[in-house]
Amino acid sequence: MAAGLREGLPAPCCPCGCAWYFRPTASIREELRTTGHAVRLETAGAEVGVVSVERAVTDWSARYFGQWWKAVEVEPQSVCAGPLVLAEIDPGAYGEAALAVTQAPHTSAVCAKAQLLVTRCEESGVVRAVSPDQALAYRSEPAGAILPPPRHPAMSRPCPARPIRWPGPVGIPTMACPQRKDPPVSRPRPVRAAVFSAGSWGTAAAKILADAGSDVIVHARRSEVADGINTRHRNPDYFPDVDLPASLTATTDPAAALEGADYLVLSVPAQTLRANLAVWAPHIGPDTVIVSLMKGIETDTGLRASQVVAQVTGVPADRIAVLSGPNLAREIMAGRPAAATVACPDEDVARRFQQACRTSYFRPYTSTDVIGCELGGAVKNVIALAVGIAAGMGLGDNAAAVLITRGLAETTRLAVRMGARPATPAGLSGMGDLVATCSSPLSRNRTFGAHLGQGMTVAEATAATRQTTEGVKSATAILDLARVHGVEMPITEVMAALLQGKIALDEAAAALMQRPPRPER
């Protein structure tokens, strides 16, 4: 068996073959090399597998760097003392490997891609993963080989260790097994996030962060909302029918919310951001990263949300991030799959927040293109108004497709002229957000436009929608940006004129359809 070990690998693993869940930071990689334990991994509620220590300190720890693994009770397992039969299966997940073994008695299976070895003992019939030294030794054997029982004396008897229970996300336990004395390892503290404020998207973002294992506190303007979150675990204003994670709390005190916060997540109307930040800024910590969820342009200045944040707080750009994508709050609250882009000039900051908000239903990607992400989120609201108007007027799906496609074209022109990468508008924060907002009845901007298309005035549509509709507030500011940068944005121009009462509803469609013909670009 020793012949299967490569030079320089750690000593054989713990005799009892115990496993744990861990957060694979750089320091823990070294700890694994020192102790030589097998490692069982689980992420987002789905078990990934039991891997050898070699794999744990290389591929897995690099791939999931900084990921919190779910903590559960780890039961000691009886160790097989009989001969094993080795068989190969196609690369796949741990569950597939275990299923293959279960359906083929008296065999074991190795997943070549993950270097995973699962065994079924001929004597006991128990299916389990072998220890790292066995896995490394057996890995070089051909399929169908009859393997000897484990040679370590202690592995011929059941493990005497008691179950190890952890209350939540943890680091490596101080005592992984009673049979060995490992040095204590400190547990990394959970990420602390303060979400301002308790609107629909703010509540959804808070749920994502809490489900990802972060310590989350929501700042609510009204005490009734904070009380509802704290006592009934529901937001009575926006999601009275959806349970929030019990770990999520709320307060009306901005200083209390921001105390010790690693992240300040901002979800407030773009036009009130400046005034709110002026009040909150004194409580923001020197190392707090500010994450903007806003999708609007400040009307008086033409500034994007991240620019307003930097101007008011003095926080450098590399500590300001943006989260943007097709994120309909109601669907996220229901746990339906979604994705978004985390953009920050500092890629490490973007990656850290990516890990802080990654769940089984929410998949974040990273980018350094803040300009492209913010403009995609802002302009799509204006285009969604136009699509909603077309729907309200009964103009059909062809008209909607034209508006979405040409809306993406004018978004891209403006973004690239302002310094964005051309590919960004084609991503989640551009086309992805545009499609969701223009297509879904859950979209506030599309709904507002539909009200206009059905004959309501702007005031009546505002009253009917009841929530902030960023496209209405930002249309003129976006058009001003386009003019400053010499970019033609016909849909935005028509929408701004319609919202300002300069043209009538029937004139809007004609203004777009009667433009001079030109090449598509």
TrEMBL record:
Keywords, comma-separated and alphabetical: Cytoplasm, Lipid biosynthesis, Lipid metabolism, NAD, NADP, Nucleotide-binding, Oxidoreductase, Phospholipid biosynthesis, Phospholipid metabolism
Reactions listed under catalytic activity: sn-glycerol 3-phosphate + NADP(+) = dihydroxyacetone phosphate + NADPH + H(+); sn-glycerol 3-phosphate + NAD(+) = dihydroxyacetone phosphate + NADH + H(+)
Binding positions for NADPH per the UniProt entry: S200, W201, R221, R222, Y238, K295, A329, R444, E470
Catalytic site: K380
Chain residues that bind sn-glycerol 3-phosphate: K295, G325, K380, D433, S443, R444, N445
Compartment annotation: Cytoplasm
EC number: 1.1.1.94
Pathway the protein acts in: Membrane lipid metabolism; glycerophospholipid metabolism
Domain Glycerol-3-phosphate dehydrogenase NAD-dependent N-terminal: 194-349
Broadest EC class assigned to this enzyme: oxidoreductase
Domain of life (superkingdom): Bacteria
Domain spans labelled Glycerol-3-phosphate dehydrogenase NAD-dependent C-terminal: 369-508
Function: Catalyzes the reduction of the glycolytic intermediate dihydroxyacetone phosphate (DHAP) to sn-glycerol 3-phosphate (G3P), the key precursor for phospholipid synthesis.
Family of this protein: Belongs to the NAD-dependent glycerol-3-phosphate dehydrogenase family.
PANTHER family (alphabetical): GLYCEROL-3-PHOSPHATE DEHYDROGENASE (PTHR11728), GLYCEROL-3-PHOSPHATE DEHYDROGENASE [NAD(+)] 2, CHLOROPLASTIC (PTHR11728:SF1)
NCBIfam families: PRK00094.1-2, PRK00094.1-4
Name of the protein described by the UniProt record: Glycerol-3-phosphate dehydrogenase [NAD(P)+]
Provenance organism: Streptomyces thermogriseus
The encoding gene: gpsA
